[in-house]
Amino acid sequence: GEAETPVDMETISLDPEAEDVDLNHFRIGKIEGFDVLKKVKTLCLRQNLIKRIENLEQLHTLRELDLYDNQIRKIESLESLVELEILDISFNVLRHIEGLDRLTQLKKLFLVNNKISKIENLSNLQMLQMLELGSNRIRAIENIDALANLDSLFLGKNKITKLQNLDALMNLTVLSIQNNRLTKIEGLQSLVNLRELYLSHNGIEVIEGLENNNKLTMLDIASNRIKKIENISHLTELQEFWVSAGWSCYPN
């Protein structure tokens, strides 16, 4: 199809009093003219033609910024948005996690379906509760020691070969690493609050390493190379257990 023509921003009227601004699929090609939004808390710019994050410096009241499905190559120019709690730059063309150091209030970060190859530059985000990095090019779980408040970590559809460096995530309740290159269940001993563990579509051969994960209610290890059900009798809270394609058990 033909490339869409960006809209003329002067044809979009913005209400200076608005707290929630939704400009989903407006063919916006450049972020400009938003300075008038003196009270904005939520700004949705999903499915536009934006190539660059810019001209948002004045939006000090912003709590949620949604840039899902644009053409953004770099995380930049967000330093002054210190109140930001939710940031979504999924389905863009980002290569690096960067430019987030000042966003210390951030609670949810979504960077799904980009071209990110390394987990990095997250150490200032100590309030972060949800990190979603699915469908990228990540090869290792690393540089997440500072995220002690993390509740949910999603790393599906990457190139991760080993479960490691998770010890600091004492409050984690959901861990999803489906569709990766794992061969062993390990490194989960500190995750005593884990309730949901998704490890389907890997190369895992043995059910093991879950000794300390007594609070698990959901365990998905379907589409692996597991031959035998073992080492789960202590998981008394388990409600759903998926072990091979189409074969599920409800133990209790």
UniProtKB/TrEMBL annotation:
InterPro entries: Cilia_flagella_integrity, Leu-rich_rpt, Leu-rich_rpt_4, Leu-rich_rpt_typical-subtyp, LRR_dom_sf
Pfam family, one: LRR_4
Gene3D superfamilies with a match to the protein in the record: Ribonuclease Inhibitor
Keyword Chaperone found: no
Cellular location(s): Nucleus
Protein keywords: Leucine-rich repeat, Nucleus, Repeat
Record GO cellular component, one term: nucleus
Family to which this protein belongs: Belongs to the SDS22 family.
Protein's recorded name: Protein phosphatase 1 regulatory subunit 7
Taxonomic source organism: Podargus strigoides
